[in-house]
Amino acid sequence: MRSAYRVETVRAAERVLLASLPEGALMARAAAGLAAACARLLPGGRPRRVALLVGSGDNGGDALFAGARLARRGVGVTALLLNPERAHPAGLAALRAAGGRTAGADAAEGVLGRADLVVDGITGIGGRGGLRPGAAELAELLDRAGEEGPPVVAVDLPSGVDADTGEVHGAALRATLTVTFGACKPGLLVDPAREFAGEVRLVDIGLRPELPAEPDLVALEAADVAALLPRPAAESDKYRRGVVGVAAGSERYPGAAVLAVGGALCGGAGAVRYAGPAGAGVLARYPETLVSAGPPSRAGRVQSWVVGPGVGDDPNARATVDDVLAAEVPVLIDADGLRGLDPERVRARRAATVLTPHAGEAAALLGGDRAGVEASRLGSVRKLAERFGAVVLLKGSTTLIAAPGGGPVHVNPTGTPWLATAGSGDVLSGLVGSLLAAGLAPVQAAATGAYLHGLAGRLAPTPATATTVTAALPEVWDQLLSATEVSSEG
Ligand SMILES: NC(=O)C1=CN([C@@H]2O[C@H](COP(=O)(O)OP(=O)(O)OC[C@H]3O[C@@H](n4cnc5c(N)ncnc54)[C@H](OP(=O)(O)O)[C@@H]3O)[C@@H](O)[C@H]2O)[C@@H](O)CC1
Ligand SMILES: [K+]
């Protein structure tokens, strides 16, 4: 499991560690890891030039000490000092002693134009708000160079992004690689900041033992998901494996029923019941489905319900959602089912509820606009979870999952833009509902479903469609299960 910690937590852990180490030792560890990562990106066989962008805090200090290490290896290093009087004194002395040069920000165009690599040490975890004008100009200069420009290695964080929330207010540096120290920060895993970070590499500076057991953000890895996947036991029957009910589709949108049932058949439940007006289409595609045309409460026993995809917005749809909400089993509500959803109605349920909005649906539930949700994904998903007393899976460029009452937010690491395709969300809702029926806890079901769905999106032939994503799901299971068999044998 990958973990990320907020700045406050990182600073508290750093204080404990700093007290037990000689002065400068922690920064030396950070600079050594940073210099090694930079050296790997430099071309061989000719004089190499590195430009350091140096702010007035310890982030700039890291850049200066790493620059000194590179200069000692024969690299031509020039530090652009944004605020010469306030640059880290010991770092500056180390760079100069190693033969590195310094220049003011007015020399930026020439220095950056000649650089093979740029090291962004303007701000790290001490940065507040969007970059100030001098720093913003450097970001714009590099943005203008675009692909033609040198690679940028961000020190700890790309300067200008919010470490805790992933929000970006104004200009920020766009990095090829971010070398982060001690612990990953939430902003490095959540859009829009994640996009500025490029590849993220964690350098161990000895902080781990001082960090609390519960991170602020977590991302499942393949082994975690494989361990969570429900497997049938020898004595299993369909009820013990779980039966998932799907109340989806309408005369107008019959395809949503087929896709949600398809997802549900690939989520590990022993059987799928379908209740609604699109039964004929569902049976034609998936004859193993148990189909009924009446309300969900008359469909027979289930261990979870999925409601909403393609149910439309007529009064029948509302009645279907209400009928499902009255069930005493976990319920997943998606798409049309989310429209006008009453928070009190959801909060009053005794069994778990999972909501799976995209940014537009989340904005409607919060009474805001879509752009606001996209700019503040972490805050939005937490707010929704509290308001509805439900687990919320916020779909999008980085899918996030939050539970009411706090605890770590999950970020899904397997997403791909190819999943932004019609009907893909219907497949996800069936899949997560099925994992709920199989007995996974709601957050685990949502995080596991998002992970499987993302991998299937990557595995499906390009361009992925909801149908090919569904078809790729069994192979995703195979890959995950066989990888864990190998590792448990080895
Ligand atoms: N602690 C440790 O043990 C270790 C820490 N380490 C390293 O230290 C980093 C944290 O250092 P830090 O606390 O000095 O803050 P930092 O990120 O340099 O920024 C503060 C400076 O930025 C400025 N500034 C603020 N906002 C700005 C903006 N929008 N636009 C422009 N400027 C802005 C602000 O200016 P001021 O407000 O003071 O005028 C101040 O000068 C951390 O990320 C890691 O790299 C590692 O070596 C491992 C050990
Ligand atoms: K930085």
Automatic annotation (TrEMBL):
Gene3D superfamilies: 3.40.1190.20, YjeF N-terminal domain (3.40.50.10260)
InterPro entries tied to this protein: Carbohydrate_kinase_pred_CS, CARKD, Nnr, Ribokinase-like, YjeF_N_dom, YjeF_N_dom_sf
Co-factor binding details: Binds 1 potassium ion per subunit.
Domain YjeF N-terminal: 10-213
EC numbers: 4.2.1.136, 5.1.99.6
GO molecular function, one term: metal ion binding
Domain YjeF C-terminal: 221-480
SUPFAM superfamilies: Ribokinase-like, YjeF N-terminal domain-like
Catalysed transformations (reactions): (6R)-NADPHX = (6S)-NADPHX; (6R)-NADHX = (6S)-NADHX; (6S)-NADPHX + ADP = AMP + phosphate + NADPH + H(+); (6S)-NADHX + ADP = AMP + phosphate + NADH + H(+)
Coiled coil: none
Keywords: ATP-binding, Isomerase, Lyase, Metal-binding, Multifunctional enzyme, NAD, NADP, Nucleotide-binding, Potassium
Cofactor(s) demanded: Mg(2+); K(+)
Binding positions for AMP per the UniProt entry: K395, G396, S397, T398, T399, G425
Annotated binding of K(+), by residue: N59, D120, S159
Subunit-structure text: Homotetramer.
Assigned protein family: Belongs to the NnrE/AIBP family. In the N-terminal section; belongs to the NnrE/AIBP family.
Protein name (record): Bifunctional NAD(P)H-hydrate repair enzyme
Gene giving rise to this polypeptide: nnrD
